[in-house]
Design a protein that fits this description.
This protein has 216 residues and is of the alpha/beta class. It has helices at residues 15-26, 33-42, 46-56, 63-74, 92-104, 120-128, 168-191, 204-215; strands at residues 4-8, 30-32, 83-86, 111-117, 130-132, 139-141, 195-199. It has one domain: P-loop containing nucleotide triphosphate hydrolases (Rossmann fold, 3-Layer(aba) Sandwich), CATH 3.40.50. It starts with a strand and ends with a helix. It binds adenosine monophosphate. Residues 11, 33-34, 37, 54-55, 58-61, 66, 87-88, 90, 94, 165, 174 line the site of adenosine monophosphate (AMP).
Length: 216
Amino acid sequence: MISFIVLLGPPGAGKGTQAKLISDKLGVPHISTGDILREAVRNDSPLGRQAKAIMDRGELVPDQLLVDIIVERLSRADCANGFLLDGYPRNISQSQTLEKVCAEHAIWDKVRALEITVPDEEIVDRLKNRRSCPSCGAVYNVVSNPPKRAETCDSCSAKLQLRDDDREETVRQRLNVYHERTEPVVGYFAERDKHIVVKGEGSPEDIFAAIMEKLR
Ligand code: AMP
């Protein structure tokens, strides 16, 4: 079973949802650079202060802000048997950083990129209906996966939010950034025979089953 996994796919492809299912099933840590950055913004840390305006515009934060975080996180003991990386790498330079740190830990041979594909128009529809819990990180969709009480998190009762970067114009900008900067990352892994692809349409359970089949 493949257990060193880089999740690729446009924003709103269901990476967060699938990442949680995969990491629970395989018992590997779920490492999301978007979550790390959002937490830094909430804590108003120096990293958060540098990242917030860039994230609100739907652009990528400078590579340098994430290098130390990734190197440190992948060096922890809990990554020795696998990891699920969600949101990193986002460009070729980050792919090279990842290759270097994984090679140093002698795990690069085991790393695979799992790409979840979804058409752009479906993404825009999904994200404007997405609501996120600022407290525990749970994610809902007001149409396809609504919370039990309107705008309220089922797990921790916090008031749900539309992420600043899930507004339609920002979603379109994030999709542009994805096509220009992150799609080449798919090629980076494909050229190295490390690319796996699944369609991200259908129920989360069916997509998860298809993923598990491919990771075997
Ligand atoms: P995500 O939750 O993965 O969609 O990330 C939300 C936002 O955080 C992105 O639109 C970027 O502004 C920023 N971000 C997350 N991961 C990265 C990364 N690897 N490189 C640059 N920016 C990132």
